[in-house]
Protein backbone atom coordinates (compact mmCIF):
# COMPACT_ATOMS: atom_id res chain seq x y z
CA UNK A 1 0.00 0.00 0.00
CA UNK A 2 1.45 3.30 -1.01
CA UNK A 3 -0.55 5.41 1.41
CA UNK A 4 0.00 8.33 -0.95
CA UNK A 5 -1.81 11.10 -2.79
CA UNK A 6 -3.54 13.09 -0.02
CA UNK A 7 -6.07 15.85 -0.49
CA UNK A 8 -3.44 18.35 0.61
CA UNK A 9 -0.07 17.82 -0.98
CA UNK A 10 2.85 20.16 -1.48
CA UNK A 11 6.34 20.16 -2.89
CA UNK A 12 9.16 20.76 -0.45
CA UNK A 13 12.71 20.60 -1.70
CA UNK A 14 11.60 18.11 -4.34
CA UNK A 15 9.71 15.98 -1.81
CA UNK A 16 5.98 15.39 -1.50
CA UNK A 17 4.42 16.35 1.80
CA UNK A 18 1.25 14.56 2.76
CA UNK A 19 -0.95 16.27 5.31
CA UNK A 20 -2.12 14.48 8.42
CA UNK A 21 -5.84 13.76 8.60
CA UNK A 22 -8.12 16.63 9.61
CA UNK A 23 -8.91 16.50 13.36
CA UNK A 24 -12.49 16.92 14.54
CA UNK A 25 -14.12 16.68 17.95
CA UNK A 26 -17.55 15.35 18.87
CA UNK A 27 -19.24 13.45 21.70
CA UNK A 28 -16.25 13.99 23.99
CA UNK A 29 -13.75 12.39 21.66
CA UNK A 30 -11.28 13.08 18.86
CA UNK A 31 -11.79 11.94 15.28
CA UNK A 32 -9.52 12.07 12.24
CA UNK A 33 -11.25 12.77 8.95
CA UNK A 34 -9.43 11.88 5.73
CA UNK A 35 -11.25 13.48 2.78
CA UNK A 36 -11.31 11.88 -0.65
CA UNK A 37 -8.74 13.26 -3.06
CA UNK A 38 -11.52 13.62 -5.64
CA UNK A 39 -15.18 13.09 -4.79
CA UNK A 40 -16.16 10.15 -6.98
CA UNK A 41 -18.69 8.16 -4.96
CA UNK A 42 -21.46 8.47 -2.40
CA UNK A 43 -19.85 6.14 0.14
CA UNK A 44 -17.54 6.84 3.08
CA UNK A 45 -15.75 4.45 5.46
CA UNK A 46 -16.00 4.47 9.25
CA UNK A 47 -13.21 2.66 11.08
CA UNK A 48 -14.17 0.77 14.25
CA UNK A 49 -11.08 -0.07 16.24
CA UNK A 50 -10.23 -3.02 18.45
CA UNK A 51 -9.57 -2.43 22.13
CA UNK A 52 -6.38 -1.90 24.11
CA UNK A 53 -3.02 -3.22 22.98
CA UNK A 54 -4.49 -4.41 19.70
CA UNK A 55 -5.67 -0.86 18.97
CA UNK A 56 -2.14 0.45 19.53
CA UNK A 57 -0.81 -2.04 16.99
CA UNK A 58 -3.52 -1.25 14.42
CA UNK A 59 -3.30 2.54 14.71
CA UNK A 60 -0.76 3.05 11.92
CA UNK A 61 -2.49 0.47 9.70
CA UNK A 62 -5.76 2.43 9.98
CA UNK A 63 -3.97 5.60 8.83
CA UNK A 64 -2.47 3.88 5.80
CA UNK A 65 -5.83 2.38 4.85
CA UNK A 66 -7.50 5.81 5.19
CA UNK A 67 -4.90 7.37 2.89
CA UNK A 68 -5.25 4.61 0.30
CA UNK A 69 -9.03 4.94 0.36
CA UNK A 70 -8.73 8.70 -0.13
CA UNK A 71 -6.62 8.06 -3.21
CA UNK A 72 -9.49 6.14 -4.84
CA UNK A 73 -12.06 8.79 -3.95
CA UNK A 74 -13.41 7.53 -0.62
CA UNK A 75 -13.48 9.63 2.55
CA UNK A 76 -13.12 8.08 6.00
CA UNK A 77 -13.19 8.77 9.72
CA UNK A 78 -11.38 7.03 12.55
CA UNK A 79 -11.88 7.91 16.22
CA UNK A 80 -11.35 6.91 19.85
CA UNK A 81 -14.12 5.29 21.89
CA UNK A 82 -15.22 7.06 25.08
CA UNK A 83 -12.58 6.70 27.79
CA UNK A 84 -9.86 5.47 25.40
CA UNK A 85 -7.00 7.18 23.57
CA UNK A 86 -7.50 10.95 23.45
CA UNK A 87 -11.20 10.83 24.39
CA UNK A 88 -12.42 12.24 27.67
CA UNK A 89 -12.65 9.71 30.48
CA UNK A 90 -15.96 8.05 31.31
CA UNK A 91 -17.21 9.60 34.54
CA UNK A 92 -19.74 6.88 35.32
CA UNK A 93 -19.21 3.20 34.66
CA UNK A 94 -21.81 0.47 34.64
CA UNK A 95 -23.20 0.78 31.11
CA UNK A 96 -21.44 -2.15 29.45
CA UNK A 97 -20.50 -1.38 25.84
CA UNK A 98 -23.07 1.41 25.57
CA UNK A 99 -20.56 4.32 25.83
CA UNK A 100 -18.51 2.88 22.95
CA UNK A 101 -21.62 2.20 20.88
CA UNK A 102 -22.84 5.76 21.44
CA UNK A 103 -19.45 7.17 20.40
CA UNK A 104 -19.58 5.06 17.22
CA UNK A 105 -23.10 6.29 16.44
CA UNK A 106 -21.99 9.91 16.86
CA UNK A 107 -18.98 9.20 14.64
CA UNK A 108 -21.23 7.84 11.87
CA UNK A 109 -23.39 10.97 12.01
CA UNK A 110 -20.27 13.14 11.94
CA UNK A 111 -18.82 11.29 8.95
CA UNK A 112 -21.98 11.73 6.91
CA UNK A 113 -21.98 15.45 7.68
CA UNK A 114 -18.31 15.87 6.78
CA UNK A 115 -18.29 13.76 3.62
CA UNK A 116 -21.76 14.45 2.26
CA UNK A 117 -22.08 10.70 1.69
CA UNK A 118 -25.32 8.91 2.48
CA UNK A 119 -23.85 5.41 2.35
CA UNK A 120 -21.31 4.03 4.83
CA UNK A 121 -19.04 1.00 4.96
CA UNK A 122 -17.79 -0.13 8.37
CA UNK A 123 -14.23 -1.46 8.61
CA UNK A 124 -13.72 -3.13 11.98
CA UNK A 125 -11.14 -5.22 13.80
CA UNK A 126 -11.41 -7.31 16.94
CA UNK A 127 -14.01 -6.00 19.36
CA UNK A 128 -14.85 -3.30 16.81
CA UNK A 129 -16.75 -5.96 14.87
CA UNK A 130 -19.30 -6.25 17.67
CA UNK A 131 -19.72 -2.46 17.66
CA UNK A 132 -20.15 -2.57 13.86
CA UNK A 133 -22.90 -5.20 13.97
CA UNK A 134 -24.81 -3.17 16.57
CA UNK A 135 -24.30 0.10 14.70
CA UNK A 136 -25.75 -1.33 11.50
CA UNK A 137 -29.00 -2.02 13.36
CA UNK A 138 -29.39 1.68 14.18
CA UNK A 139 -28.35 3.32 10.92
CA UNK A 140 -29.72 3.14 7.37
CA UNK A 141 -27.60 2.63 4.27
CA UNK A 142 -24.78 0.57 5.74
CA UNK A 143 -23.53 -1.02 2.52
CA UNK A 144 -21.02 -3.39 4.08
CA UNK A 145 -19.07 -4.48 7.14
CA UNK A 146 -15.49 -5.71 7.07
CA UNK A 147 -14.78 -8.02 10.02
CA UNK A 148 -11.02 -8.28 10.56
CA UNK A 149 -10.06 -10.88 13.16
CA UNK A 150 -13.53 -10.59 14.76
CA UNK A 151 -14.26 -11.34 18.41
CA UNK A 152 -16.78 -14.16 17.98
CA UNK A 153 -16.89 -15.55 21.52
CA UNK A 154 -16.53 -13.01 24.30
CA UNK A 155 -15.45 -15.61 26.83
CA UNK A 156 -12.74 -16.94 24.53
CA UNK A 157 -11.60 -13.38 23.82
CA UNK A 158 -11.22 -12.56 27.53
CA UNK A 159 -9.20 -15.74 28.05
CA UNK A 160 -7.03 -14.73 25.12
CA UNK A 161 -6.51 -11.28 26.65
CA UNK A 162 -5.32 -12.91 29.87
CA UNK A 163 -2.68 -14.87 27.97
CA UNK A 164 -1.81 -11.80 25.88
CA UNK A 165 -1.36 -9.71 29.03
CA UNK A 166 1.00 -12.22 30.60
CA UNK A 167 3.09 -12.48 27.43
CA UNK A 168 3.43 -8.69 27.22
CA UNK A 169 4.41 -8.40 30.88
CA UNK A 170 6.92 -11.23 30.49
CA UNK A 171 8.46 -9.55 27.45
CA UNK A 172 9.03 -6.44 29.57
CA UNK A 173 10.67 -8.46 32.34
CA UNK A 174 7.89 -7.52 34.77
CA UNK A 175 7.95 -9.69 37.92
CA UNK A 176 4.72 -11.45 38.81
CA UNK A 177 4.29 -9.30 41.93
CA UNK A 178 4.23 -6.13 39.82
CA UNK A 179 1.74 -7.34 37.23
CA UNK A 180 -1.62 -5.58 37.12
CA UNK A 181 -4.06 -8.47 37.32
CA UNK A 182 -7.19 -6.71 38.55
CA UNK A 183 -10.00 -7.04 36.06
CA UNK A 184 -9.17 -7.18 32.34
CA UNK A 185 -5.84 -5.40 31.97
CA UNK A 186 -3.46 -5.57 29.00
CA UNK A 187 -0.35 -3.40 28.50
CA UNK A 188 -1.41 -1.11 31.37
CA UNK A 189 -4.85 -0.55 29.79
CA UNK A 190 -7.80 -1.70 31.87
CA UNK A 191 -11.16 -2.46 30.34
CA UNK A 192 -14.05 -1.04 32.41
CA UNK A 193 -15.55 -3.83 34.51
CA UNK A 194 -19.02 -3.29 33.07
CA UNK A 195 -17.62 -3.51 29.54
CA UNK A 196 -15.80 -6.73 30.43
CA UNK A 197 -19.04 -8.18 31.82
CA UNK A 198 -20.81 -7.30 28.58
CA UNK A 199 -18.01 -8.77 26.46
CA UNK A 200 -18.21 -12.02 28.40
CA UNK A 201 -21.78 -12.50 27.15
CA UNK A 202 -20.98 -11.88 23.48
CA UNK A 203 -21.43 -14.62 20.91
CA UNK A 204 -21.61 -13.51 17.28
CA UNK A 205 -22.63 -17.04 16.24
CA UNK A 206 -26.03 -16.31 17.78
CA UNK A 207 -26.48 -13.23 15.62
CA UNK A 208 -29.96 -13.59 14.12
CA UNK A 209 -29.93 -10.62 11.76
CA UNK A 210 -27.37 -8.45 10.01
CA UNK A 211 -28.46 -5.10 8.63
CA UNK A 212 -26.06 -4.98 5.70
CA UNK A 213 -25.93 -6.78 2.35
CA UNK A 214 -22.13 -7.22 2.11
CA UNK A 215 -19.47 -8.61 4.42
CA UNK A 216 -15.75 -9.19 4.26
CA UNK A 217 -14.22 -11.58 6.81
CA UNK A 218 -10.45 -11.72 7.17
CA UNK A 219 -9.79 -14.93 9.06
CA UNK A 220 -6.74 -15.32 11.30
CA UNK A 221 -4.40 -18.23 10.65
CA UNK A 222 -5.20 -21.22 12.82
CA UNK A 223 -8.60 -19.84 13.88
CA UNK A 224 -11.29 -22.07 12.30
CA UNK A 225 -13.95 -20.13 14.24
CA UNK A 226 -13.43 -17.15 11.92
CA UNK A 227 -14.38 -19.24 8.89
CA UNK A 228 -17.40 -20.63 10.79
CA UNK A 229 -18.52 -17.06 11.44
CA UNK A 230 -18.23 -16.22 7.74
CA UNK A 231 -20.50 -19.17 6.92
CA UNK A 232 -22.95 -18.02 9.60
CA UNK A 233 -23.14 -14.58 7.98
CA UNK A 234 -24.06 -16.27 4.70
CA UNK A 235 -27.03 -17.93 6.41
CA UNK A 236 -28.21 -14.43 7.34
CA UNK A 237 -28.40 -13.53 3.66
CA UNK A 238 -25.25 -11.44 3.32
CA UNK A 239 -22.94 -11.62 0.33
CA UNK A 240 -19.78 -12.73 2.14
CA UNK A 241 -16.23 -12.57 0.87
CA UNK A 242 -13.76 -14.49 3.02
CA UNK A 243 -9.99 -14.30 2.86
CA UNK A 244 -6.95 -14.99 5.02
CA UNK A 245 -5.75 -12.19 7.25
CA UNK A 246 -2.18 -12.40 5.99
CA UNK A 247 0.26 -10.75 8.39
CA UNK A 248 -2.10 -10.61 11.36
CA UNK A 249 0.37 -12.06 13.88
CA UNK A 250 3.16 -9.73 12.80
CA UNK A 251 0.79 -6.76 13.07
CA UNK A 252 -0.41 -7.32 16.63
CA UNK A 253 2.71 -8.75 18.26
CA UNK A 254 4.26 -5.42 19.26
CA UNK A 255 3.75 -1.83 18.01
CA UNK A 256 7.52 -1.32 17.97
CA UNK A 257 8.22 -4.11 15.48
CA UNK A 258 4.78 -4.40 13.87
CA UNK A 259 4.82 -5.14 10.14
CA UNK A 260 2.02 -3.56 8.16
CA UNK A 261 -0.13 -6.26 6.49
CA UNK A 262 0.18 -4.91 2.95
CA UNK A 263 -1.62 -7.80 1.23
CA UNK A 264 -4.55 -7.63 3.65
CA UNK A 265 -4.74 -3.88 3.14
CA UNK A 266 -5.04 -4.30 -0.61
CA UNK A 267 -7.88 -6.80 -0.13
CA UNK A 268 -9.76 -4.35 2.09
CA UNK A 269 -9.36 -1.42 -0.30
CA UNK A 270 -10.41 -3.54 -3.31
CA UNK A 271 -13.47 -4.86 -1.46
CA UNK A 272 -14.55 -1.37 -0.38
CA UNK A 273 -14.15 -0.11 -3.93
CA UNK A 274 -16.18 -3.01 -5.30
CA UNK A 275 -19.27 -2.21 -3.20
CA UNK A 276 -19.01 1.59 -2.94
CA UNK A 277 -22.05 3.36 -4.32
CA UNK A 278 -21.35 5.44 -7.41
CA UNK A 279 -23.77 8.41 -7.53
CA UNK A 280 -25.36 9.69 -10.66
CA UNK A 281 -24.59 13.17 -9.39
CA UNK A 282 -21.85 14.54 -7.22
CA UNK A 283 -22.16 14.24 -3.47
CA UNK A 284 -23.72 17.18 -1.68
CA UNK A 285 -21.55 20.28 -1.62
CA UNK A 286 -23.31 21.52 1.53
CA UNK A 287 -20.85 19.87 3.88
CA UNK A 288 -20.08 20.50 7.53
CA UNK A 289 -16.76 22.25 8.09
CA UNK A 290 -14.21 20.10 9.90
CA UNK A 291 -13.88 21.65 13.32
CA UNK A 292 -11.85 20.64 16.33
CA UNK A 293 -13.29 22.51 19.28
CA UNK A 294 -11.27 21.88 22.46
CA UNK A 295 -12.36 19.01 24.66
CA UNK A 296 -13.02 20.40 28.15
CA UNK A 297 -12.10 18.27 31.15
CA UNK A 298 -11.33 18.68 34.83
CA UNK A 299 -8.87 21.59 34.86
CA UNK A 300 -7.75 21.24 31.25
CA UNK A 301 -8.76 21.77 27.66
CA UNK A 302 -7.26 19.81 24.79
CA UNK A 303 -7.11 20.85 21.16
CA UNK A 304 -6.24 18.30 18.46
CA UNK A 305 -4.30 19.97 15.68
CA UNK A 306 -2.04 19.60 12.67
CA UNK A 307 1.23 21.47 12.33
CA UNK A 308 4.54 21.53 10.52
CA UNK A 309 5.21 22.00 6.83
CA UNK A 310 2.04 21.12 4.93
CA UNK A 311 0.28 20.20 8.20
CA UNK A 312 2.11 16.88 8.09
CA UNK A 313 2.16 16.19 11.85
CA UNK A 314 -0.70 15.47 14.25
CA UNK A 315 -0.79 16.15 17.96
CA UNK A 316 -2.82 17.22 20.98
CA UNK A 317 -2.20 20.52 22.75
CA UNK A 318 -3.27 20.28 26.39
CA UNK A 319 -3.60 23.58 28.27
CA UNK A 320 -4.71 24.55 31.77
CA UNK A 321 -8.16 26.02 32.24
CA UNK A 322 -6.65 28.69 34.47
CA UNK A 323 -3.45 30.69 34.22
CA UNK A 324 -0.26 29.02 33.06
CA UNK A 325 2.23 28.48 35.85
CA UNK A 326 5.14 26.75 34.16
CA UNK A 327 7.07 25.92 31.03
CA UNK A 328 5.49 23.78 28.29
CA UNK A 329 6.27 20.06 28.22
CA UNK A 330 6.94 18.52 24.82
CA UNK A 331 5.98 14.86 25.29
CA UNK A 332 7.75 12.71 22.72
CA UNK A 333 6.49 9.33 21.58
CA UNK A 334 8.24 6.08 22.39
CA UNK A 335 9.06 3.87 19.41
CA UNK A 336 5.87 3.42 17.34
CA UNK A 337 3.44 3.88 20.24
CA UNK A 338 0.80 6.48 19.42
CA UNK A 339 1.00 9.87 21.10
CA UNK A 340 -1.46 8.80 23.84
CA UNK A 341 1.43 6.78 25.27
CA UNK A 342 1.82 3.27 26.65
CA UNK A 343 -1.24 2.66 28.80
CA UNK A 344 -2.40 6.24 28.00
CA UNK A 345 0.54 7.46 30.10
CA UNK A 346 0.97 10.66 28.07
CA UNK A 347 -2.75 11.45 28.24
CA UNK A 348 -2.97 11.11 32.02
CA UNK A 349 0.31 13.01 32.48
CA UNK A 350 -0.74 15.89 30.22
CA UNK A 351 -4.05 16.35 32.05
CA UNK A 352 -2.42 16.17 35.49
CA UNK A 353 0.17 18.76 34.42
CA UNK A 354 -2.55 21.07 33.14
CA UNK A 355 -4.26 21.00 36.53
CA UNK A 356 -0.99 22.42 37.91
CA UNK A 357 -0.86 25.12 35.23
CA UNK A 358 1.57 23.36 32.87
CA UNK A 359 0.73 23.12 29.16
CA UNK A 360 1.96 20.24 27.02
CA UNK A 361 2.06 19.02 23.44
CA UNK A 362 2.01 15.31 22.64
CA UNK A 363 2.35 14.33 19.01
CA UNK A 364 3.25 11.57 16.58
CA UNK A 365 6.51 11.98 14.71
CA UNK A 366 6.45 11.25 10.97
CA UNK A 367 5.51 7.64 10.10
CA UNK A 368 4.38 6.99 13.68
CA UNK A 369 0.69 6.62 14.51
CA UNK A 370 -1.35 9.34 12.84
CA UNK A 371 1.46 11.34 11.21
CA UNK A 372 2.24 10.30 7.61
CA UNK A 373 5.80 9.52 6.53
CA UNK A 374 7.93 12.16 4.90
CA UNK A 375 8.76 11.28 1.30
CA UNK A 376 12.35 10.24 0.86
CA UNK A 377 12.86 9.47 4.54
CA UNK A 378 13.87 5.95 5.60
CA UNK A 379 11.04 3.56 6.46
CA UNK A 380 12.64 2.97 9.87
CA UNK A 381 12.43 6.36 11.59
CA UNK A 382 13.56 5.39 15.09
CA UNK A 383 17.00 6.79 15.94
CA UNK A 384 16.85 8.61 12.61
CA UNK A 385 17.99 12.19 12.04
CA UNK A 386 14.70 12.80 10.25
CA UNK A 387 12.91 12.95 13.61
CA UNK A 388 14.90 16.03 14.59
CA UNK A 389 12.93 18.00 12.02
CA UNK A 390 9.67 16.86 13.64
CA UNK A 391 10.75 18.17 17.05
CA UNK A 392 11.90 21.44 15.49
CA UNK A 393 8.48 21.97 13.91
CA UNK A 394 6.76 21.13 17.21
CA UNK A 395 8.85 23.83 18.89
CA UNK A 396 7.91 26.21 16.06
CA UNK A 397 4.26 25.61 16.92
CA UNK A 398 4.84 26.34 20.60
CA UNK A 399 6.72 29.50 19.73
CA UNK A 400 3.94 30.68 17.41
CA UNK A 401 1.43 30.18 20.22
CA UNK A 402 3.61 31.95 22.82
CA UNK A 403 4.02 28.74 24.78
CA UNK A 404 7.78 28.93 25.31
CA UNK A 405 9.91 28.18 27.31
CA UNK A 406 9.70 24.45 26.62
CA UNK A 407 11.32 21.29 27.88
CA UNK A 408 11.49 17.87 26.22
CA UNK A 409 10.35 14.64 27.86
CA UNK A 410 10.83 11.15 26.43
CA UNK A 411 11.14 7.49 27.38
CA UNK A 412 13.35 4.87 25.68
CA UNK A 413 13.81 5.94 22.03
CA UNK A 414 11.86 9.08 22.93
CA UNK A 415 14.48 9.74 25.60
CA UNK A 416 17.22 9.44 22.99
CA UNK A 417 15.33 11.87 20.76
CA UNK A 418 14.82 14.25 23.69
CA UNK A 419 18.58 14.32 24.38
CA UNK A 420 19.41 14.93 20.73
CA UNK A 421 16.71 17.63 20.45
CA UNK A 422 18.01 19.44 23.53
CA UNK A 423 21.47 19.49 21.98
CA UNK A 424 20.25 20.96 18.70
CA UNK A 425 17.59 23.34 19.98
CA UNK A 426 18.31 26.29 22.25
CA UNK A 427 14.55 26.56 22.75
CA UNK A 428 14.74 23.36 24.85
CA UNK A 429 15.36 24.70 28.33
CA UNK A 430 15.01 21.37 30.05
CA UNK A 431 15.44 17.64 29.41
CA UNK A 432 13.88 14.61 31.07
CA UNK A 433 14.90 11.25 29.67
CA UNK A 434 13.52 7.97 31.00
CA UNK A 435 15.20 4.58 30.46
CA UNK A 436 17.00 5.61 27.25
CA UNK A 437 18.68 2.64 25.65
CA UNK A 438 21.43 4.97 24.46
CA UNK A 439 22.20 8.68 24.07
CA UNK A 440 24.12 8.17 20.83
CA UNK A 441 23.21 5.82 17.99
CA UNK A 442 25.89 4.15 15.87
CA UNK A 443 24.39 4.53 12.40
CA UNK A 444 26.20 1.41 11.19
CA UNK A 445 23.94 -0.66 13.47
CA UNK A 446 20.65 -2.05 12.26
CA UNK A 447 17.79 -0.48 14.22
CA UNK A 448 15.43 -3.27 13.17
CA UNK A 449 17.75 -5.95 14.51
CA UNK A 450 18.31 -4.05 17.76
CA UNK A 451 14.56 -3.73 18.30
CA UNK A 452 13.80 -7.35 17.50
CA UNK A 453 16.51 -8.69 19.80
CA UNK A 454 16.49 -5.97 22.46
CA UNK A 455 18.84 -6.93 25.32
CA UNK A 456 18.04 -6.82 29.01
CA UNK A 457 20.24 -6.14 32.01
CA UNK A 458 22.31 -8.97 33.46
CA UNK A 459 20.21 -8.83 36.64
CA UNK A 460 17.06 -9.40 34.60
CA UNK A 461 18.61 -12.32 32.73
CA UNK A 462 19.75 -13.83 36.02
CA UNK A 463 16.32 -13.50 37.61
CA UNK A 464 14.59 -14.99 34.57
CA UNK A 465 16.95 -17.97 34.40
CA UNK A 466 15.98 -18.91 37.94
CA UNK A 467 12.33 -19.17 36.96
CA UNK A 468 11.03 -22.63 36.02
CA UNK A 469 8.72 -21.23 33.35
CA UNK A 470 11.66 -19.55 31.58
CA UNK A 471 13.61 -22.81 31.58
CA UNK A 472 10.63 -24.63 30.07
CA UNK A 473 10.31 -22.05 27.30
CA UNK A 474 14.07 -22.13 26.70
CA UNK A 475 14.21 -25.91 26.27
CA UNK A 476 10.98 -25.80 24.26
CA UNK A 477 12.62 -23.52 21.70
CA UNK A 478 10.30 -20.58 22.44
CA UNK A 479 13.23 -18.32 23.42
CA UNK A 480 15.96 -17.23 21.02
CA UNK A 481 18.80 -18.68 23.11
CA UNK A 482 21.52 -17.50 20.69
CA UNK A 483 20.46 -13.87 20.93
CA UNK A 484 20.05 -14.10 24.71
CA UNK A 485 23.55 -15.58 25.15
CA UNK A 486 25.04 -12.93 22.84
CA UNK A 487 23.32 -10.16 24.79
CA UNK A 488 24.54 -11.55 28.11
CA UNK A 489 28.09 -11.84 26.76
CA UNK A 490 27.98 -8.24 25.57
CA UNK A 491 26.76 -7.08 28.97
CA UNK A 492 29.48 -9.04 30.77
CA UNK A 493 32.07 -7.61 28.40
CA UNK A 494 31.03 -4.06 29.18
CA UNK A 495 31.20 -4.70 32.91
CA UNK A 496 34.65 -6.29 32.65
CA UNK A 497 35.84 -3.30 30.65
CA UNK A 498 34.50 -0.89 33.25
CA UNK A 499 36.13 -2.88 36.06
CA UNK A 500 39.42 -2.81 34.17
CA UNK A 501 39.31 0.94 33.76
CA UNK A 502 38.58 1.32 37.46
CA UNK A 503 41.50 -0.91 38.46
CA UNK A 504 43.84 0.99 36.18
CA UNK A 505 42.70 4.26 37.64
CA UNK A 506 41.20 5.39 34.37
CA UNK A 507 37.90 7.19 34.58
CA UNK A 508 35.67 7.09 31.55
CA UNK A 509 34.74 10.74 31.98
CA UNK A 510 38.26 11.68 30.90
CA UNK A 511 39.07 8.69 28.75
CA UNK A 512 36.18 9.53 26.47
CA UNK A 513 36.39 13.30 26.90
CA UNK A 514 35.68 13.95 23.24
CA UNK A 515 32.93 11.35 22.91
CA UNK A 516 29.54 12.47 21.59
CA UNK A 517 27.65 11.61 24.78
CA UNK A 518 29.87 13.28 27.37
CA UNK A 519 30.53 16.12 24.98
CA UNK A 520 26.79 16.53 24.61
CA UNK A 521 26.21 16.64 28.36
CA UNK A 522 28.96 19.27 28.68
CA UNK A 523 27.27 21.37 26.01
CA UNK A 524 23.92 21.15 27.78
CA UNK A 525 25.50 21.97 31.15
CA UNK A 526 27.19 25.08 29.72
CA UNK A 527 23.86 26.23 28.31
CA UNK A 528 22.26 25.82 31.71
CA UNK A 529 19.77 23.19 30.53
CA UNK A 530 17.82 21.64 33.40
CA UNK A 531 18.49 17.88 33.17
CA UNK A 532 16.89 14.86 34.81
CA UNK A 533 17.74 11.21 34.17
CA UNK A 534 15.26 8.55 35.34
CA UNK A 535 15.92 4.81 35.25
CA UNK A 536 14.22 1.66 36.43
CA UNK A 537 16.59 -0.17 38.75
CA UNK A 538 17.47 -3.04 36.38
CA UNK A 539 16.96 -1.34 33.03
CA UNK A 540 19.49 -2.09 30.29
CA UNK A 541 19.91 1.66 29.79
CA UNK A 542 21.77 1.84 33.11
CA UNK A 543 24.58 -0.23 31.60
CA UNK A 544 25.04 2.41 28.92
CA UNK A 545 24.93 5.18 31.52
CA UNK A 546 27.66 3.41 33.50
CA UNK A 547 29.74 3.05 30.34
CA UNK A 548 29.82 6.84 30.14
CA UNK A 549 29.87 7.87 33.79
CA UNK A 550 31.46 4.90 35.53
CA UNK A 551 30.02 2.28 37.85
CA UNK A 552 26.91 3.54 39.61
CA UNK A 553 27.18 6.78 37.64
CA UNK A 554 29.97 8.09 39.86
CA UNK A 555 31.08 10.53 37.17
CA UNK A 556 27.83 12.42 37.45
CA UNK A 557 29.40 14.30 40.36
CA UNK A 558 31.15 16.39 37.69
CA UNK A 559 27.67 17.42 36.55
CA UNK A 560 26.13 18.50 39.87
CA UNK A 561 23.01 19.95 38.25
CA UNK A 562 21.92 16.62 36.71
CA UNK A 563 19.40 14.77 38.82
CA UNK A 564 19.57 10.97 38.65
CA UNK A 565 16.51 9.05 39.87
CA UNK A 566 16.52 5.25 40.15
CA UNK A 567 13.07 3.68 40.57
CA UNK A 568 13.28 0.32 42.37
CA UNK A 569 11.29 -2.67 41.14
CA UNK A 570 9.97 -1.02 37.98
CA UNK A 571 10.03 -2.24 34.40
CA UNK A 572 11.16 -0.42 31.25
CA UNK A 573 7.64 0.92 30.59
CA UNK A 574 7.04 2.10 34.18
CA UNK A 575 4.03 -0.15 34.62
CA UNK A 576 3.65 0.05 38.45
CA UNK A 577 1.52 3.07 39.47
CA UNK A 578 4.16 4.28 41.96
CA UNK A 579 6.75 4.41 39.15
CA UNK A 580 4.48 6.65 37.09
CA UNK A 581 4.00 8.91 40.10
CA UNK A 582 7.76 9.39 40.36
CA UNK A 583 7.87 10.20 36.65
CA UNK A 584 4.99 12.67 36.85
CA UNK A 585 6.47 14.37 39.90
CA UNK A 586 9.75 14.98 38.10
CA UNK A 587 8.03 16.33 34.99
CA UNK A 588 5.78 18.59 37.08
CA UNK A 589 8.64 19.97 39.20
CA UNK A 590 10.78 20.78 36.17
CA UNK A 591 7.90 22.54 34.45
CA UNK A 592 7.21 24.73 37.47
CA UNK A 593 10.91 25.37 38.03
CA UNK A 594 11.53 26.49 34.44
CA UNK A 595 8.38 28.60 34.43
CA UNK A 596 9.58 30.58 37.43
CA UNK A 597 12.92 31.53 35.87
TrEMBL record:
UniProt-listed Pfam families: Abhydrolase_1
Top-level lineage group: Bacteria
InterPro entries referenced in this protein's UniProt entry, alphabetically: AB_hydrolase_1, AB_hydrolase_Est10, AB_hydrolase_fold
Gene Ontology MF terms in the entry: carboxylic ester hydrolase activity
Coiled-coil residue windows: none
Alphabetic keyword roster: Hydrolase
Annotated PANTHER family: ESTERASE ESTD (PTHR43265)
Protein name per UniProt: Alpha/beta fold hydrolase
UniProt organism field: Rhizobium tropici
Amino acid sequence: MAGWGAAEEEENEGKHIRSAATPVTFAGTVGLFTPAVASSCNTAVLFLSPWGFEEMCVRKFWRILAEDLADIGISSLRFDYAGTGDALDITEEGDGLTPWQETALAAAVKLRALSGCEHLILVSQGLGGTIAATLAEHLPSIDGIAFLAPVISGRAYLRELTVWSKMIDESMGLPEAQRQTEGVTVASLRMPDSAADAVKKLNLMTLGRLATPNCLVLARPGRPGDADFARHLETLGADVEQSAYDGYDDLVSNPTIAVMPTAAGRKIVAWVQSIATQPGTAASADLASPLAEPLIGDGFHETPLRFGKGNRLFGILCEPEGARAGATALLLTTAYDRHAGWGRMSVTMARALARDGIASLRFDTANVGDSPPLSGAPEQVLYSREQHRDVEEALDLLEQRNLLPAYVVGRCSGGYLAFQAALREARCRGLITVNPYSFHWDESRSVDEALRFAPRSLETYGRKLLQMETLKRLFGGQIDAKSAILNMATGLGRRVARAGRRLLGAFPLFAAAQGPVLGGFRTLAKRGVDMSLIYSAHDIGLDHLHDQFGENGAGLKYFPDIRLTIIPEADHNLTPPYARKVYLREVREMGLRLGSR
